[in-house]
Amino acid sequence: MGKVTSSIVVACDASSHSAEAARMAAELAKATGKPLTLLSVFPSARLERLVIGGVMPDKVDEEVNSYGREVFDAARKAVSGIADPADEVLLRGDPAHAILEYLEGNPEVHLVLGRRGHSMVRSLTLGSISEKVVRHATVPVTVVNG
User: Which family is it part of (predicted)?
Assistant: First the structure.
């Protein structure tokens, strides 16, 4: 018997691929009666640029929160009329690593995320977030090719 999923979590970044993933996650949440959680990660590379640029800590927090509002507003717009998000989770760090840490702490979720579609060469050399998450996740993961 498989794991019982208690919620549907969609990884968001305000891209068109993220919007497609959000719509699919909302449909899945609606069909299963599970709550929908929006998850985003403020990238550590962007955070490092702010700190190196001399941005004060309170302004960094302001930038992170602004990013979260933008991403979650786009995701809420994408799922409007399908399912209302029950929660929003904004993390900081390397996106793949932060998502995997979240999944380790929430083993009962089903993750939905979009695939950006990097070029073959770039995916082979850098790997994509979706590939890293799929490779290491211990929960069900659905990757949406939008």
Answer: Belongs to the universal stress protein A family.
Contact assessment for residue 64 and residue 92, using Cβ atoms and an 8 Å cutoff: yes
In a domain, 2, yes or no: no
User: Distance between CA atoms of 24 and 43, rounded to whole angstroms?
Assistant: 24
Token pair, residue 1, equals 């018997």
Residue 1 within a domain: no
pLDDT in tens, 119-144: 445 444 445 888 899 999 999 999 99
Q: Domain with 28 in it: what CATH number? A: 3.40.50.620
40 burial (CB, 10 Å; 0-12 / 13-18 / 19+) is buried
Cα radius of gyration rounded to whole Å, the chain? 15
Backbone angles phi, psi at 10, to 5 degrees: -115, 130
CA distances for 53 relative to 44, 46, 67, 80, angstroms: 14, 11, 18, 37
